[in-house]
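@channel sequence for tomorrow's demo:
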Amino acid sequence: MKSLSTISGEPVNVAVALPESELKRSGNIISHIKKSIYSFSIPRLKSRLRHSPEAQRNLALFALMLAVVIFPHIAGAEDLLKSQKADANDTFGHGSTVEWVLYIAEIIVSVVGYIKTRNPMVFAGLVILILITRAFFSLAGS
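structure tokens (generated this afternoon):
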């Protein structure tokens, strides 16, 4: 440990963990990098993969992700239902038969509800239901 002194030259009672001399590596930088890579990866990864199902699952997911990155045409797909978009729009879009059947069903249920309860607020609920149905079917058609 080095002792520090202030500007006035008096020693300070603070311990600082600094090395006494520079840290020198033996050998060149390439051998140091190679040694650190080998000490990090091979034995520890092998034992961890053998004994940990979570590590095996992570390795499988990583391999799948790597395969998708390397071969992106595997993950790409052609829209097989592209030709059916007009049919779905005609069936479920705004102004479709399903929309009109729902309107008729809502009216019938509201009339029956009014007959049972004699409450005119049932028809306010009918208006709200028709507006919601119209909004959702216009969204489904777009």
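heads up for whoever presents: Helices lie at 29-40, 42-51, 53-70, 72-75, 85-92, 97-117, 121-141.
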